[in-house]
C-alpha cells in the first residue's frame, strides 16, 4: 500500500489550520489582561469642561515624566459633589479613607527605554494626541495603551520627522 | 480530482485541529509565561519629582557639605555641595556610600530593650514613650540617690552643636563626665599643647604650603578632613598653578599616600622622631632655619639658665650632640644623602609644613614624635604664616551656666592630673573596673563604637558588664550596642537636621547646617531630640538649661548668635569669596543678609556660614605657653615632671633630666625571639575611622593595591614570605602574645621586611550581614601606655605568621 | 557635532576611588556578594588599576582610574553578532542592554577589560533598591554592561539647554565620576572644540593614551604624573 505524505494527512491539516487560527486569536484578538481602574473616570466630560491634559497629568509637557493625578488634584474640584455620579463619590471615599487613588498606569515604555515628555512635547512640538489618541472622546478610563508603544512606532515617527535614530538616545 | 472526506479522516482532522488550537494557545500563553519566569525579574524604579537638597556628611569628622538628589521621597544620589568651603563639590567614596547607610537592610528599626542578660542579650522592641520613660526614670532615680555624677556620656562622630547639646544636658543633670572618642590628630594636638599651649583648634594652611613633609600621617587616607586634604593635593599639582608643592611621605609602608607622594622615604618603623631631628641637624648646621623667628618667638633653642641658676639643655645642643647624621641614618635606615637632600629642599622651600604624630584617624601617634616634627615647623618659622601651622579661633558663644550655679564633682578621669588637659577615653575601662574615684552608674554612647575601635576595647567590654545601665544611640547593632540595656536608634545623616562645625585642621570658624533630606525610613529618632525630650521629662534644672522643643530650635539659637556676632558670610562661590576678602581688607563687611530670618534661610539654601578670613599674627592666641613663645623645651612637661617624679622615673627620666621636656626619639621595642615580625595596623580610606565594612560600596574598594575586597588581608614583604615558606593567597595564622587570628596573606613589596600589616575596620562580630568579616587587628595588639603622656601605644606588638 | 572625551590628570589623582563609587551609585550597578566578587565577578564600570614596580624600598606604583576609554576604533563593537553595541556620531561607545544576547565576545575583545557580564540577577537587599536612579535601567542577568559616559546626563543637559534656548555649554554635561572628583583630577568635554579645557589638556606634552599601540584610539586621555621641579630658590 502506498503511504500518503504526512502533510496530506487529515490530522496534520487540521492541526496546522487550527494552530494558525489559535495563534491569531490568542495573540491578537484577546490581548493580555489589562489593569482595572479604581473608578470610571470620564475624559470626555472633563475635557469638554475646558480642562487641559497637563492640568491633571502634571509634567506631561515640560518634565521627563508625566504623572497620574493625586487625590489632591481631584479634590480641587470634587471636594463637594459636582454631579450625582456614584463614581465621583468614590473620590471622597478615598479621601475619607486617607488613601491615594490607585490609578493603574496603562501606557508605559519598557524600563530600558529613556523617554522624556519634555523632549517630545515641549521641545519636539508633538501633541499629546499624537501618542495617546483622542482622549476627548473617551468616556471610560483607558485600560490598555491607546497608541502603539512599540519600537517600530518610535522608529517610524522618528523617520517621518527626520529625527535621528541613534540607539543611545532612547535605550539606556 | 474529487475530495472525499470519510468519517475517519474527519475525526482525524478534528482531532488534529483541537490539538493545534490547544498547542497555539499553550505556545503563546505558555511561551510568555515561560519567558516571564525565566527572564530576570526587573527591578521597579519608581519615578517622581526631582529635587536637590543640602546636607552634611558625618561619616568621618571631615564635615563635607552634601547635595542630595531626591526622586519623590527617595534619596538617589549624594554629591558634594559646590558652595561648601571644605569640599567645594568634591566628595570621597565614604560620603557617597551614605545612601547605603540610609537604606541599609540591617539598620536598627525601633527602640529596643535587652530582656536577656548582658552575655546573652535578647532584644525586644518597645515604644519610644517607654524607651524615653525608662531612661528618664533611671536618671531621676540616680539623681535622687545623689549619684548623678556617675553617669558617663561618650560622644563620638556628630556635629559640633550636638556635642554642645549633650554636654549641656549632662552638666545640668549633674555630671562632668562627657567623654569624646580619641582622634588620630590628638598626637599633633598634644605637641601643639606642649609647645604652643594650644588646647584645640590645630590647623594647617595646606593650600598655601610649598613643601609638605608627612611623618606617617596618612594624608590621603583619612587624615584630618580627608576631602580637604585631597583638594589641597589637587591644587598643588594643578597644571594651571605653575608651581608644584612637593609632598614627601615618611613611612615604613608604601601606602597609597606614599604612592601618590612625590617621594617616599622608607623609614624604619618607630624612628620618625630621629629622622625629624636629623633633618633639624642639617637645618641648624647649614643655617637654613629661620633664625629671626627662632630668636623672637621660641624658647629653649639655645641652652638656658633658670631662675635657680641651673643650666638646661637647649634644642640646638640636643640635636647637634645626639642626632648626628651617621647615628640617625643607622637608626632610621634612611641614607645620609637622602636626609641631607630632604633637609636642604625643606629649608629652601618656604613656606613648608611638617605633619606627624598620627597613626590612624582614631589612633593618635606618639607625642614625642609629634613634638620632634612640630619643632621642624618652628625652625622654619612656619607658624602663623600662610602655608604654615595655624590655630583656629573658635566661634563660640558663652555656654549658659546652669542656674543656680552648681558645683560639679571632679571629673571621673581627672584630666587635671594628667599631662594632657583632655580626658582620654581609653582610661574609662580602668576607672570603671577600679570604681575610683567613684562608681560609674550609667554609660550613654552616641556616634561611637568604642568597644570595637579603642585599642583596649576588650577591656571596655569587660568594664561595661560592671556598669548597671548602658544605653546606646547607635544606628546599627555594633560591638558596644551589643553590651547595652537600652537602644535608642538615631536617625542617619539624611533623616535629621544636620550640622557640623569646622572640621579638624580647618583654619577658620564654620557652621554647616541643613534640614532633613528624606523622611525617616524606620522608627528612629534624632538623638538630640531624644535628649531634649529627656530633659523635659526630668524637669528642673535640666529642663531650664534646655528649654528648646527640638534640635531645630537649638540650632536656630546658634544662628541667632552668629547673626549677633556681625561677622562672616554665608557660603558663596569662590569668586564671591575673593570679592568679600577684598572688601574686608579695606575694612568693609558686606553680608548678604540683614535679618536673622534672612540668615537662617540663606544658611539653609547654601549649606552654612563661615568666616573666610584667617587673621594672622594673633600671637597671644596662638602661643599660650608660660613663656608666651614656642617652646622647644616644654615647660608644661617640666611642670608635670615636677609633680610626678615617680612616674617620670618609671619612664626612665631622673629628676632634672631635660630630655623629658625636649623632643626626642623614644626607645624602640625589642622583638622577642619567638615573635619576629612587628604588627602595624593600617588605615585604608574606605574604612577610615574603623567604620564602613558594613557598606558594600566601601568593601568593594578596600584594598586596590593588593586586589583585595570584602576580607581582611595580611600584607607581607615577598622576601619575608619566601623565608617563611608562604605564598600569595595562603590562609595564615597571625599570632601575638595576646592571641591569634586567621587571615589571607597578600604579598606586597611595599612592606618593610620586618613588619606585617593588617587593615583596621574589619572583624566585627555583631550587626550587619556584611560587616562581620575579617579580623580586628586591635584584638591582637598589646597596648601599653606611654609613661609620660599616658597615650596607649599600638605600634609595639610583635607577631609570628605561619600557615594554617 | 561634539566629540566627547575625558582627560585624567594622574598627577592630581589621589586614588581615593570616589569616582568608582559615584559611577556605581549613578548607574545602578549592583554590589555582588563577597563570594561572587572573589570569583572576579564584581561589576565596576570604572576601576582604579594599580601597576606596581620594584622591590622594597624602591617601589613605585601607578594607579590608573580606568573607565571605558570610548575608543574611536573600538575592537569590541566589531565582534558583536547582534549590533547591540556601536559608536554614536558623538563618539560614545554605546551598549544597548536590551539587545545584548550575552555572548561575551565583546568582553573578550576589549583590551582594557572594561566590559562586564551580569553573572547574577542584580540584588538590592532591603531598602537599597530605594536608592536606584530612575534615569538608568537595571540590567538583567545575562547581559554585558559598560560605561555609557552617563549618557542620560547628556540627554537631560541637552533638554535643559534647549528649554532655556541656549547651546550646550561646557560643564553642563559631566559624567558622575568627573563631577565628584575631590582633587579635580578629571576633566570632561568636547575634544573637537579647540577652546575646551579637555582639548587644551589633550595637547599637553604630558598627555598619553593607554595602550595606544593597539590602534584603538581612545578618547580618554591621561596626563602623566610629572615631577617636582625643585624649590623656588634653587630655580632662581
How much of the polypeptide of chain A forms β-strand, as a percent range? Answer: under 5%
The coarse silhouette of chain A is extended
CATH fold label of chain C: Alpha-Beta Plaits
Order of helices and strands of chain A: HHHHHHHHH
Structural class of chain A: mainly alpha
Unreliable residue stretches of chain C: none
Shape of chain C: globular
> Structurally, how many domains make up the residues of chain C?
1
Poorly predicted segments of chain A? none
Please provide the count of β strands of chain A. 0
Specify the oligomeric state. heterotrimer
Helix-strand pattern of chain C, N to C? EHHEEHEEHEEHHEHEEH
Instruction: Let me know the largest β-sheet of chain A.
Output: none
Q: Which protein chains make the most extensive interface, counting residues with beta carbons within 8 Å of the other chain's beta carbons?
A: B-C, 87 and 72 residues
Tell me the number of helical segments of chain C per DSSP (H or I, 4 or more residues long). 8
Let me know the number of strands of chain C.
10
Global Rg of chain C: 19 Å
Percent helix range of chain C: 10-25%
CATH class of chain C: Alpha Beta
- Number of helical stretches of at least 4 residues of chain A: 9
Amino acid at each position: 500500500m502506498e503511504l500518503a505524505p504526512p502533510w496530506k494527512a487529515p490530522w496534520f491539516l487540521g492541526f496546522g489550520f487550527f494552530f494558525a487560527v489559535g495563534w491569531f486569536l490568542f495573540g491578537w484578538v484577546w490581548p493580555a489582561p489589562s489593569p482595572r481602574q479604581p473608578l470610571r473616570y470620564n475624559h470626555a466630560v472633563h475635557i469638554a469642561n475646558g480642562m487641559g491634559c497637563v492640568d491633571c497629568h502634571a509634567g506631561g509637557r515640560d518634565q521627563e515624566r508625566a504623572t497620574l493625578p493625586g487625590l489632591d488634584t481631584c479634590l480641587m474640584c470634587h471636594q463637594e459633589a459636582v454631579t450625582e455620579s456614584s463614581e465621583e463619590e468614590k473620590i471622597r471615599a478615598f479621601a475619607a479613607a486617607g488613601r491615594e487613588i490607585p490609578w493603574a498606569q496603562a501606557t508605559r515604555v519598557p524600563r530600558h527605554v529613556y523617554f522624556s515628555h519634555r523632549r517630545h512635547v515641549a521641545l519636539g512640538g508633538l501633541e499629546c494626541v499624537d501618542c495617546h489618541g483622542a482622549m476627548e472622546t473617551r468616556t471610560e478610563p483607558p485600560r490598555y495603551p491607546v497608541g502603539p508603544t512599540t519600537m517600530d512606532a518610535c522608529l517610524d515617527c522618528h523617520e517621518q520627522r527626520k529625527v535621528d535614530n541613534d540607539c543611545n538616545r532612547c535605550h539606556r | 480530482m474529487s475530495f472525499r472526506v470519510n468519517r475517519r479522516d474527519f475525526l482525524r482532522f478534528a482531532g488534529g485541529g483541537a490539538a493545534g488550537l490547544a498547542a497555539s494557545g499553550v505556545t503563546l500563553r505558555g511561551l510568555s509565561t515561560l519567558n516571564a519566569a525565566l527572564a530576570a525579574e526587573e527591578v521597579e524604579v519608581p519615578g517622581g519629582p526631582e529635587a536637590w537638597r543640602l546636607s552634611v556628611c558625618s561619616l568621618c569628622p571631615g564635615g563635607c557639605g552634601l547635595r542630595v538628589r531626591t526622586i519623590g521621597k527617595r534619596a538617589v544620589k549624594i554629591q558634594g555641595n559646590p558652595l561648601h568651603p571644605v569640599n567645594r563639590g568634591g566628595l570621597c567614596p565614604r560620603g557617597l556610600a551614605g545612601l547605603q547607610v540610609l537604606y541599609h537592610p540591617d539598620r536598627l528599626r525601633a527602640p529596643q530593650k535587652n530582656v536577656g542578660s548582658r552575655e546573652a542579650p535578647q532584644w525586644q522592641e518597645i515604644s519610644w514613650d517607654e524607651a524615653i520613660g525608662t531612661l528618664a526614670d533611671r536618671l531621676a532615680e540616680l539623681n535622687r540617690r545623689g549619684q548623678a555624677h556617675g553617669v558617663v556620656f561618650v560622644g563620638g562622630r556628630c556635629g559640633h552643636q550636638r556635642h554642645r547639646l549633650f554636654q549641656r544636658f549632662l552638666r545640668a543633670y549633674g555630671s562632668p563626665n562627657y567623654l569624646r572618642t580619641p582622634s588620630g590628630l590628638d598626637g599633633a594636638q598634644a605637641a601643639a599643647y606642649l609647645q604652643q599651649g594650644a588646647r584645640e583648634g590645630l590647623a594647617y594652611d595646606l593650600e598655601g604650603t610649598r613643601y609638605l613633609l608627612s611623618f606617617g600621617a596618612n594624608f590621603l587616607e583619612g587624615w584630618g578632613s580627608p576631602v580637604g586634604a585631597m583638594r589641597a593635593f589637587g591644587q598643588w599639582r594643578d597644571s594651571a598653578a605653575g608651581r608644584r608643592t612637593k609632598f614627601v611621605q615618611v613611612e615604613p609602608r608604601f601606602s597609597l599616600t606614599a604612592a601618590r607622594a612625590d617621594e617616599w622615604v622608607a623609614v624604619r618603623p618607630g624612628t620618625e622622631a630621629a629622622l625629624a631631628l636629623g633633618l633639624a641637624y642639617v637645618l641648624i648646621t647649614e643655617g637654613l632655619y629661620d633664625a629671626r623667628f627662632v630668636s623672637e618667638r621660641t624658647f629653649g633653642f639655645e641652652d638656658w639658665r633658670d631662675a635657680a641658676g641651673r643650666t638646661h639643655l637647649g634644642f640646638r645642643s640636643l640635636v647637634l650632640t645626639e642626632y648626628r647624621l651617621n647615628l640617625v641614618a643607622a637608626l632610621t635606615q634612611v641614607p645620609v644623602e637622602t636626609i641631607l637632600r630632604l633637609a636642604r629642599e625643606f629649608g629652601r622651600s618656604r613656606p613648608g609644613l611638617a605633619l606627624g604624630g598620627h597613626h590612624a584617624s582614631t589612633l593618635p601617634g606618639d607625642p614625642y614624635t609629634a613634638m620632634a616634627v612640630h619643632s621642624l615647623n618652628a625652625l622654619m618659622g612656619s607658624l602663623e604664616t600662610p602655608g604654615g601651622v595655624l590655630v583656629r579661633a573658635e566661634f563660640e558663644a558663652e555656654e549658659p551656666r546652669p542656674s543656680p550655679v552648681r558645683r560639679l564633682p571632679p571629673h571621673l578621669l581627672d584630666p587635671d592630673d594628667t599631662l594632657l588637659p583632655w580626658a582620654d577615653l581609653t582610661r574609662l575601662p580602668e576607672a570603671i573596673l577600679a570604681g575610683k574615684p567613684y562608681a560609674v552608674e550609667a554609660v550613654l554612647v552616641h556616634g561611637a563604637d568604642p568597644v570595637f575601635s579603642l585599642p583596649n576595647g576588650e577591656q571596655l567590654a569587660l568594664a561595661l558588664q560592671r556598669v548597671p545601665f548602658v544605653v546606646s544611640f547607635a544606628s546599627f547593632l555594633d560591638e558596644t550596642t551589643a553590651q547595652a540595656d537600652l537602644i535608642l536608634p538615631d536617625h542617619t545623616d539624611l533623616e535629621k537636621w544636620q550640622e557640623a562645625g569646622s572640621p579638624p585642621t580647618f583654619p577658620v570658624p564654620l557652621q554647616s547646617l541643613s534640614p532633613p533630606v528624606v523622611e525617616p525610613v524606620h522608627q528612629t529618632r534624632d538623638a538630640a531630640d531624644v535628649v531634649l525630650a529627656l530633659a523635659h521629662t526630668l524637669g528642673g534644672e535640666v529642663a531650664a538649661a534646655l528649654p528648646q522643643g527640638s534640635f531645630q530650635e537649638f540650632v536656630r539659637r546658634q544662628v541667632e548668635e552668629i547673626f549677633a556676632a556681625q561677622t562672616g558670610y554665608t557660603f558663596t562661590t569662590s569668586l564671591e569669596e575673593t570679592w568679600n576678602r577684598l572688601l574686608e581688607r579695606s575694612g568693609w563687611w558686606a553680608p548678604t543678609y540683614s535679618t536673622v530670618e534672612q540668615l537662617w534661610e540663606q544658611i539653609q539654601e547654601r549649606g552654612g556660614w563661615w568666616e573666610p578670613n584667617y587673621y594672622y599674627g594673633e600671637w597671644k592666641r596662638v602661643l599660650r605657653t608660660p613663656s608666651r613663645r614656642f617652646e622647644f623645651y616644654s615647660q608644661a612637661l617640666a611642670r608635670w615632671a615636677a609633680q610626678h617624679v615617680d612616674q617620670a622615673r618609671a619612664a626612665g627620666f631622673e629628676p632634672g633630666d631635660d630630655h623629658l621636656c625636649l623632643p626626642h626619639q623614644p626607645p624602640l621595642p625589642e622583638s622577642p625571639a619567638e615573635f619576629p615580625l612587628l604588627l602595624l595596623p593600617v588605615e585604608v580610606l574606605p574604612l577610615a575611622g574603623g567604620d564602613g565594612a558594613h557598606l558594600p560600596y566601601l568593601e568593594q574598594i578596600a584594598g586596590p593595591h593588593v586586589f583585595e575586597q570584602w576580607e581582611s588581608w595580611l600584607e607581607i614583604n615577598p622576601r619575608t614570605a619566601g623565608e617563611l615558606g608562604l605564598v600569595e593567597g595562603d590562609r595564615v595564622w597571625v599570632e601575638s602574645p595576646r592571641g591569634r587570628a586567621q587571615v589571607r596573606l597578600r604579598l606586597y613589596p611595599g612592606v618593610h621586611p620586618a613588619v606585617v600589616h593588617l587593615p583596621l575596620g574589619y572583624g566585627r562580630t555583631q550587626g550587619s550581614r556584611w560587616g562581620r568579616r575579617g579580623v580586628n587587628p586591635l584584638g591582637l595588639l598589646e597596648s601599653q601606655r606611654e609613661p609620660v603622656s599616658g597615650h596607649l601605644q599600638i605600634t609595639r606588638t610583635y607577631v609570628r605568621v605561619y600557615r594554617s | 557635532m561634539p566629540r566627547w572625551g575625558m582627560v585624567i590628570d594622574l598627577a592630581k589623582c589621589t586614588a581615593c576611588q570616589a569616582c568608582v563609587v559615584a559611577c556605581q551609585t549613578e548607574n545602578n550597578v549592583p554590589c555582588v556578594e563577597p563570594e561572587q566578587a572573589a570569583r572576579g565577578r564584581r561589576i565596576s564600570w570604572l576601576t582604579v588599576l594599580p601597576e606596581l614596580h620594584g622591590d622594597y624600598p624602591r617601589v613605585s606604583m601607578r594607579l590608573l582610574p580606568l573607565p571605558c576609554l570610548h575608543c574611536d576604533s573600538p575592537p569590541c563593537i566589531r565582534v558583536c553578532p547582534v549590533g547591540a553595541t556601536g559608536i554614536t556620531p558623538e563618539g560614545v561607545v554605546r551598549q544597548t542592554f536590551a539587545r545584548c544576547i550575552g555572548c561575551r565576545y565583546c568582553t573578550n575583545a576589549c583590551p582594557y577589560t572594561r566590559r562586564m557580564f551580569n553573572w547574577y540577577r542584580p540584588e538590592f537587599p532591603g531598602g537599597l533598591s530605594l536608592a536606584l536612579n530612575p534615569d538608568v535601567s537595571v540590567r538583567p542577568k545575562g547581559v554585558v554592561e559598560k560605561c555609557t559616559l552617563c549618557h542620560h546626563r547628556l540627554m537631560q543637559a541637552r533638554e535643559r539647554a534647549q528649554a532655556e534656548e541656549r547651546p550646550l555649554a561646557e560643564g553642563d554635561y559631566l559624567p558622575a565620576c568627573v563631577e565628584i572628583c575631590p582633587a579635580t583630577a578629571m576633566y570632561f568635554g568636547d575634544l573637537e572644540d579647540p577652546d575646551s579645557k579637555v582639548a587644551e589638556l589633550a595637547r599637553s606634552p604630558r598627555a598619553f593614551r593607554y595602550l595606544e599601540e593597539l590602534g584603538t584610539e581612545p578618547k580618554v586621555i591621561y596626563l602623566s604624573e610629572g615631577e617636582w621641579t625643585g624649590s623656588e630658590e634653587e630655580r632662581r
